[in-house]
Amino acid sequence: MTVDSIAPEALKLPLIDRIQLAASLWESIEDPYTLSAEMTDEDAIALALTRDAEVESGEVSALSHAELMARLRR
Description:
The protein has 74 residues and is mainly alpha-helical. The protein is built from 4 helices and no strands.
């Protein structure tokens, strides 16, 4: 099966069923950046500063929202 074969059928579902399907699909995606719910404010700030420094140094490149969404849709 492909997205192109499933999507048209899924879009025919009633709204509540589409919501449940979307929620189920979303929950099935593992987040590579899952953070502990127990993270302290200080830890969160340190992580944000580290990621900011990575972008500023050119170690990583930031993506715009549009770029991110385009990559995810490929």
